[in-house]
Amino acid sequence: MKKAIAKTKNKIASGLTVLMTLTRRHLKMFFRNKLAFIFSLMVPTIIIIIYIIFLRNLEIGAVDEILASYFDGVVDEGLASRAHTLVDAWMLSGILGVSCISVSFNTCYIIVADRESGANRDFASAPIKRSSIIASYFLFNFIVTFIICTVILIFSLIYLGAIGAFSISFANVMGIIGTMILSIFSACLLTVFFASFITSSQVFNSMIAIISAAIGFLIGAYLPNSMLPEGAQYVTMFFSGTYSTGMFRNLFLEGQFNDLLAYLNNSSLDPSSVNALLTDLESSFSMNLNFFNHDVNLWFMCLALVLFTLIYLVLNFAFANKQLERTLLGKFRKRKQKSVNLKEEKEEEE
Q1: Residue 25 burial by CB count (10 A; 0-12/13-18/19+): exposed, middle or buried?
Q2: Measured between alpha carbons, how far is 54 from 101 in angstroms, rounded to an integer?
Q3: Which residue in 4, 159, 189, 260 has the most C-beta neighbors within 10 A?
Q4: In DSSP terms, which residues pair with 294 in a beta bridge?
Q5: Residues 56-115 pLDDT 10s
Q6: Is the CB of residue 82 less than 8 Å from the CB of residue 259?
Q7: How far is CA 235 from each of CA 240, 293, 343, rounded to the nearest angstrom?
Q8: Which of 167, 120, 132 is nearest to 262 (CA)?
Q9: pTM
Q10: Residues 331-343: pLDDT tens digits?
Protein backbone atom coordinates (compact mmCIF):
# COMPACT_ATOMS: atom_id res chain seq x y z
CA MET A 1 0.00 0.00 0.00
CA LYS A 2 2.77 2.43 0.94
CA LYS A 3 4.64 1.58 -2.25
CA ALA A 4 1.52 2.29 -4.33
CA ILE A 5 1.01 5.65 -2.59
CA ALA A 6 4.67 6.57 -3.05
CA LYS A 7 4.48 5.57 -6.72
CA THR A 8 1.38 7.72 -7.23
CA LYS A 9 3.07 10.69 -5.56
CA ASN A 10 6.12 10.27 -7.77
CA LYS A 11 3.93 10.20 -10.88
CA ILE A 12 2.11 13.37 -9.79
CA ALA A 13 5.38 15.12 -8.96
CA SER A 14 6.86 14.05 -12.30
CA GLY A 15 3.76 15.27 -14.17
CA LEU A 16 3.89 18.64 -12.42
CA THR A 17 7.59 19.00 -13.19
CA VAL A 18 6.95 18.34 -16.88
CA LEU A 19 4.00 20.73 -16.86
CA MET A 20 6.01 23.57 -15.32
CA THR A 21 9.01 22.92 -17.60
CA LEU A 22 6.86 23.09 -20.74
CA THR A 23 5.00 26.15 -19.45
CA ARG A 24 8.31 27.95 -18.82
CA ARG A 25 9.38 27.04 -22.33
CA HIS A 26 6.20 28.57 -23.83
CA LEU A 27 6.61 31.70 -21.69
CA LYS A 28 10.23 32.14 -22.78
CA MET A 29 9.20 31.81 -26.42
CA PHE A 30 6.43 34.37 -26.00
CA PHE A 31 8.42 36.99 -24.12
CA ARG A 32 11.44 36.45 -26.37
CA ASN A 33 9.25 37.71 -29.20
CA LYS A 34 8.95 41.27 -27.88
CA LEU A 35 6.72 42.35 -30.76
CA ALA A 36 4.12 39.75 -29.81
CA PHE A 37 4.03 40.97 -26.22
CA ILE A 38 3.94 44.64 -27.21
CA PHE A 39 1.20 44.00 -29.78
CA SER A 40 -0.93 42.12 -27.22
CA LEU A 41 -0.57 45.06 -24.84
CA MET A 42 -1.00 47.74 -27.50
CA VAL A 43 -4.38 46.53 -28.79
CA PRO A 44 -6.36 47.46 -25.63
CA THR A 45 -4.16 50.54 -25.13
CA ILE A 46 -5.06 51.81 -28.61
CA ILE A 47 -8.74 51.20 -27.88
CA ILE A 48 -8.44 53.32 -24.72
CA ILE A 49 -6.75 56.12 -26.67
CA ILE A 50 -9.40 56.01 -29.41
CA TYR A 51 -12.10 56.17 -26.75
CA ILE A 52 -10.55 59.18 -25.00
CA ILE A 53 -10.02 61.09 -28.26
CA PHE A 54 -13.13 60.18 -30.28
CA LEU A 55 -15.84 58.33 -28.33
CA ARG A 56 -15.79 59.94 -24.89
CA ASN A 57 -17.52 63.17 -25.94
CA LEU A 58 -20.19 61.18 -27.79
CA GLU A 59 -21.02 59.11 -24.70
CA ILE A 60 -20.89 62.15 -22.43
CA GLY A 61 -23.32 63.97 -24.75
CA ALA A 62 -25.85 61.13 -24.35
CA VAL A 63 -25.56 61.34 -20.54
CA ASP A 64 -25.94 65.13 -20.60
CA GLU A 65 -29.20 64.77 -22.54
CA ILE A 66 -30.61 62.48 -19.84
CA LEU A 67 -29.57 64.88 -17.08
CA ALA A 68 -30.97 67.90 -18.95
CA SER A 69 -34.38 66.23 -19.26
CA TYR A 70 -34.65 66.10 -15.45
CA PHE A 71 -33.21 69.54 -14.67
CA ASP A 72 -34.93 71.61 -17.38
CA GLY A 73 -31.72 71.93 -19.35
CA VAL A 74 -29.70 73.39 -16.47
CA VAL A 75 -27.16 70.92 -15.02
CA ASP A 76 -24.62 72.11 -12.46
CA GLU A 77 -20.96 71.22 -12.85
CA GLY A 78 -20.81 68.93 -9.80
CA LEU A 79 -23.62 66.73 -11.09
CA ALA A 80 -22.23 66.71 -14.63
CA SER A 81 -18.74 65.68 -13.51
CA ARG A 82 -20.13 62.82 -11.40
CA ALA A 83 -22.25 61.61 -14.29
CA HIS A 84 -19.30 61.84 -16.68
CA THR A 85 -17.24 59.56 -14.46
CA LEU A 86 -19.84 56.87 -15.13
CA VAL A 87 -18.90 57.05 -18.81
CA ASP A 88 -15.19 56.58 -18.11
CA ALA A 89 -15.71 53.68 -15.71
CA TRP A 90 -18.19 52.09 -18.14
CA MET A 91 -15.82 52.19 -21.10
CA LEU A 92 -12.77 51.01 -19.16
CA SER A 93 -14.71 48.04 -17.79
CA GLY A 94 -15.76 47.14 -21.35
CA ILE A 95 -12.16 47.32 -22.58
CA LEU A 96 -11.10 45.00 -19.75
CA GLY A 97 -13.81 42.55 -20.77
CA VAL A 98 -12.62 42.62 -24.39
CA SER A 99 -8.98 42.22 -23.36
CA CYS A 100 -9.62 38.95 -21.52
CA ILE A 101 -10.71 37.41 -24.83
CA SER A 102 -8.56 39.21 -27.42
CA VAL A 103 -5.28 38.79 -25.51
CA SER A 104 -6.01 35.10 -24.98
CA PHE A 105 -6.63 34.64 -28.72
CA ASN A 106 -3.39 36.40 -29.62
CA THR A 107 -1.46 34.22 -27.18
CA CYS A 108 -2.63 31.05 -28.92
CA TYR A 109 -0.23 31.73 -31.78
CA ILE A 110 2.33 29.61 -29.87
CA ILE A 111 0.21 26.51 -30.49
CA VAL A 112 0.09 27.14 -34.24
CA ALA A 113 3.77 28.12 -34.36
CA ASP A 114 4.79 24.85 -32.68
CA ARG A 115 2.95 22.89 -35.34
CA GLU A 116 4.60 24.76 -38.19
CA SER A 117 8.11 24.78 -36.69
CA GLY A 118 8.09 21.08 -35.87
CA ALA A 119 8.59 21.59 -32.13
CA ASN A 120 5.89 18.97 -31.65
CA ARG A 121 8.42 16.34 -32.76
CA ASP A 122 10.51 16.89 -29.66
CA PHE A 123 7.39 16.63 -27.49
CA ALA A 124 6.22 13.45 -29.18
CA SER A 125 9.60 11.73 -28.91
CA ALA A 126 9.96 12.53 -25.20
CA PRO A 127 8.63 10.07 -22.58
CA ILE A 128 5.98 12.47 -21.24
CA LYS A 129 2.22 12.33 -21.05
CA ARG A 130 0.19 14.01 -23.78
CA SER A 131 -2.05 15.57 -21.11
CA SER A 132 0.95 17.45 -19.68
CA ILE A 133 1.75 18.90 -23.10
CA ILE A 134 -1.81 20.09 -23.64
CA ALA A 135 -2.21 21.43 -20.09
CA SER A 136 0.98 23.47 -20.49
CA TYR A 137 -0.62 25.47 -23.31
CA PHE A 138 -3.65 26.26 -21.13
CA LEU A 139 -1.48 27.33 -18.20
CA PHE A 140 0.82 29.42 -20.39
CA ASN A 141 -2.16 31.15 -22.04
CA PHE A 142 -3.72 31.91 -18.66
CA ILE A 143 -0.49 33.37 -17.20
CA VAL A 144 0.20 35.67 -20.17
CA THR A 145 -3.41 36.86 -20.40
CA PHE A 146 -3.54 37.49 -16.66
CA ILE A 147 -0.33 39.54 -16.73
CA ILE A 148 -1.48 41.75 -19.60
CA CYS A 149 -5.01 42.20 -18.24
CA THR A 150 -3.56 43.11 -14.83
CA VAL A 151 -1.51 45.84 -16.50
CA ILE A 152 -4.68 47.13 -18.21
CA LEU A 153 -6.59 47.04 -14.91
CA ILE A 154 -3.86 49.00 -13.11
CA PHE A 155 -3.80 51.55 -15.93
CA SER A 156 -7.60 51.89 -15.72
CA LEU A 157 -7.55 52.47 -11.96
CA ILE A 158 -4.73 55.01 -12.28
CA TYR A 159 -6.67 56.84 -15.02
CA LEU A 160 -9.83 56.99 -12.90
CA GLY A 161 -7.78 58.28 -9.97
CA ALA A 162 -6.04 60.88 -12.14
CA ILE A 163 -9.33 62.41 -13.32
CA GLY A 164 -10.76 62.34 -9.80
CA ALA A 165 -13.25 59.58 -10.56
CA PHE A 166 -11.92 56.78 -8.36
CA SER A 167 -14.93 55.64 -6.29
CA ILE A 168 -14.21 51.91 -6.26
CA SER A 169 -14.14 50.20 -2.88
CA PHE A 170 -11.55 47.60 -1.87
CA ALA A 171 -14.26 44.92 -1.95
CA ASN A 172 -15.13 45.88 -5.53
CA VAL A 173 -11.46 45.82 -6.55
CA MET A 174 -11.24 42.28 -5.17
CA GLY A 175 -14.44 41.44 -7.04
CA ILE A 176 -12.95 42.84 -10.26
CA ILE A 177 -9.82 40.70 -9.82
CA GLY A 178 -11.93 37.61 -9.11
CA THR A 179 -14.09 38.30 -12.17
CA MET A 180 -10.96 38.81 -14.25
CA ILE A 181 -9.54 35.44 -13.16
CA LEU A 182 -12.79 33.63 -13.99
CA SER A 183 -13.15 35.52 -17.29
CA ILE A 184 -9.59 34.71 -18.34
CA PHE A 185 -10.00 31.04 -17.42
CA SER A 186 -13.19 30.89 -19.48
CA ALA A 187 -11.57 32.77 -22.37
CA CYS A 188 -8.53 30.47 -22.37
CA LEU A 189 -10.73 27.41 -22.62
CA LEU A 190 -12.62 28.98 -25.53
CA THR A 191 -9.58 30.27 -27.44
CA VAL A 192 -7.49 27.11 -27.06
CA PHE A 193 -10.54 25.13 -28.22
CA PHE A 194 -10.68 27.15 -31.46
CA ALA A 195 -6.90 27.18 -31.87
CA SER A 196 -6.79 23.39 -31.62
CA PHE A 197 -8.45 23.19 -35.05
CA ILE A 198 -6.11 25.68 -36.78
CA THR A 199 -2.97 24.37 -38.46
CA SER A 200 -1.86 27.41 -40.48
CA SER A 201 -0.52 30.72 -39.20
CA GLN A 202 -2.16 32.51 -42.14
CA VAL A 203 -5.58 31.18 -41.16
CA PHE A 204 -4.87 32.02 -37.53
CA ASN A 205 -3.89 35.62 -38.34
CA SER A 206 -7.01 36.09 -40.44
CA MET A 207 -9.12 34.70 -37.63
CA ILE A 208 -7.49 37.07 -35.11
CA ALA A 209 -8.17 40.07 -37.33
CA ILE A 210 -11.87 39.19 -37.61
CA ILE A 211 -12.29 38.44 -33.92
CA SER A 212 -10.44 41.58 -32.79
CA ALA A 213 -12.74 43.72 -34.93
CA ALA A 214 -15.99 42.03 -33.92
CA ILE A 215 -15.62 40.87 -30.33
CA GLY A 216 -16.19 44.29 -28.74
CA PHE A 217 -19.56 44.61 -30.43
CA LEU A 218 -20.56 40.97 -29.90
CA ILE A 219 -20.22 41.29 -26.11
CA GLY A 220 -21.61 44.83 -25.85
CA ALA A 221 -18.31 46.37 -24.76
CA TYR A 222 -18.37 49.40 -27.06
CA LEU A 223 -22.11 50.07 -27.07
CA PRO A 224 -24.59 49.46 -24.24
CA ASN A 225 -26.82 46.47 -24.90
CA SER A 226 -29.85 48.74 -24.47
CA MET A 227 -28.77 50.71 -27.57
CA LEU A 228 -28.60 47.61 -29.77
CA PRO A 229 -31.58 46.34 -31.81
CA GLU A 230 -33.66 43.82 -29.87
CA GLY A 231 -32.49 40.88 -31.99
CA ALA A 232 -28.86 41.88 -31.57
CA GLN A 233 -29.33 42.14 -27.81
CA TYR A 234 -30.44 38.52 -27.69
CA VAL A 235 -27.50 37.41 -29.85
CA THR A 236 -24.99 38.99 -27.45
CA MET A 237 -26.47 36.98 -24.58
CA PHE A 238 -25.04 33.78 -26.07
CA PHE A 239 -21.44 34.96 -25.61
CA SER A 240 -19.73 34.43 -22.28
CA GLY A 241 -17.86 37.72 -22.67
CA THR A 242 -21.16 39.59 -22.40
CA TYR A 243 -21.61 38.38 -18.84
CA SER A 244 -18.02 39.02 -17.77
CA THR A 245 -18.25 42.55 -19.21
CA GLY A 246 -21.54 43.06 -17.38
CA MET A 247 -19.92 41.95 -14.13
CA PHE A 248 -16.99 44.31 -14.65
CA ARG A 249 -19.40 47.18 -15.23
CA ASN A 250 -21.41 46.52 -12.10
CA LEU A 251 -18.24 46.41 -10.00
CA PHE A 252 -16.64 49.44 -11.65
CA LEU A 253 -19.79 51.58 -11.56
CA GLU A 254 -21.27 50.71 -8.15
CA GLY A 255 -19.18 53.29 -6.30
CA GLN A 256 -19.79 55.88 -9.00
CA PHE A 257 -23.56 55.41 -8.72
CA ASN A 258 -23.43 55.63 -4.92
CA ASP A 259 -21.51 58.90 -5.19
CA LEU A 260 -24.03 60.22 -7.71
CA LEU A 261 -26.96 59.15 -5.51
CA ALA A 262 -25.53 60.99 -2.50
CA TYR A 263 -25.21 64.14 -4.62
CA LEU A 264 -28.74 63.84 -6.05
CA ASN A 265 -30.26 63.42 -2.59
CA ASN A 266 -29.02 66.94 -1.81
CA SER A 267 -30.35 68.38 -5.06
CA SER A 268 -33.71 69.91 -5.92
CA LEU A 269 -35.07 66.65 -7.31
CA ASP A 270 -37.73 64.79 -5.37
CA PRO A 271 -37.03 61.15 -4.38
CA SER A 272 -39.20 59.69 -7.16
CA SER A 273 -37.35 61.72 -9.82
CA VAL A 274 -33.98 60.67 -8.32
CA ASN A 275 -34.98 57.00 -8.60
CA ALA A 276 -36.25 57.53 -12.14
CA LEU A 277 -32.99 59.26 -13.18
CA LEU A 278 -30.83 56.51 -11.69
CA THR A 279 -33.00 53.89 -13.42
CA ASP A 280 -32.52 55.64 -16.77
CA LEU A 281 -28.76 55.82 -16.26
CA GLU A 282 -28.55 52.19 -15.20
CA SER A 283 -30.48 51.23 -18.32
CA SER A 284 -28.22 53.37 -20.52
CA PHE A 285 -25.10 51.77 -19.07
CA SER A 286 -26.51 48.20 -19.24
CA MET A 287 -26.05 47.48 -15.55
CA ASN A 288 -28.62 44.71 -15.98
CA LEU A 289 -28.76 42.66 -19.16
CA ASN A 290 -31.96 41.84 -21.01
CA PHE A 291 -32.36 38.13 -21.73
CA PHE A 292 -35.61 37.71 -23.65
CA ASN A 293 -37.35 40.42 -21.59
CA HIS A 294 -35.93 39.15 -18.29
CA ASP A 295 -33.44 41.26 -16.34
CA VAL A 296 -30.12 39.55 -15.61
CA ASN A 297 -28.44 41.05 -12.53
CA LEU A 298 -24.88 40.68 -11.26
CA TRP A 299 -25.35 37.31 -9.57
CA PHE A 300 -27.09 35.76 -12.55
CA MET A 301 -24.27 37.09 -14.76
CA CYS A 302 -21.80 35.29 -12.50
CA LEU A 303 -23.84 32.09 -12.69
CA ALA A 304 -24.06 32.36 -16.50
CA LEU A 305 -20.29 32.88 -16.78
CA VAL A 306 -19.65 29.80 -14.61
CA LEU A 307 -22.04 27.74 -16.78
CA PHE A 308 -20.31 28.88 -19.98
CA THR A 309 -16.95 27.99 -18.42
CA LEU A 310 -18.19 24.49 -17.62
CA ILE A 311 -19.47 24.10 -21.19
CA TYR A 312 -16.08 25.15 -22.59
CA LEU A 313 -14.40 22.71 -20.21
CA VAL A 314 -16.55 19.85 -21.48
CA LEU A 315 -15.89 20.85 -25.12
CA ASN A 316 -12.16 20.83 -24.48
CA PHE A 317 -12.23 17.41 -22.85
CA ALA A 318 -14.49 16.03 -25.58
CA PHE A 319 -12.87 17.49 -28.67
CA ALA A 320 -9.96 19.90 -28.20
CA ASN A 321 -7.66 17.53 -26.31
CA LYS A 322 -7.96 14.87 -29.01
CA GLN A 323 -7.63 17.47 -31.75
CA LEU A 324 -4.52 19.01 -30.17
CA GLU A 325 -2.99 15.57 -29.77
CA ARG A 326 -3.67 14.76 -33.41
CA THR A 327 -2.41 18.06 -34.83
CA LEU A 328 0.55 18.46 -32.49
CA LEU A 329 1.69 14.89 -32.28
CA GLY A 330 -0.21 12.82 -34.82
CA LYS A 331 1.93 13.52 -37.89
CA PHE A 332 5.13 12.70 -36.05
CA ARG A 333 3.71 9.43 -34.74
CA LYS A 334 2.56 8.46 -38.24
CA ARG A 335 6.01 9.15 -39.67
CA LYS A 336 7.62 7.23 -36.83
CA GLN A 337 5.27 4.29 -37.34
CA LYS A 338 5.90 4.38 -41.09
CA SER A 339 9.66 4.22 -40.56
CA VAL A 340 9.20 1.32 -38.14
CA ASN A 341 7.08 -0.53 -40.70
CA LEU A 342 9.67 0.06 -43.44
CA LYS A 343 12.40 -1.22 -41.15
CA GLU A 344 10.40 -4.35 -40.39
CA GLU A 345 9.74 -4.94 -44.08
CA LYS A 346 13.46 -4.69 -44.86
CA GLU A 347 14.29 -7.12 -42.08
CA GLU A 348 11.72 -9.59 -43.43
CA GLU A 349 13.16 -9.29 -46.96
CA GLU A 350 16.65 -9.99 -45.66
Answers
A1: middle
A2: 24
A3: 189
A4: 291
A5: 887 888 888 888 887 777 777 888 888 888 888 888 898 999 999 989 998 888 888 887
A6: yes
A7: 11, 13, 57
A8: 167
A9: 0.84
A10: 555 555 555 555 5
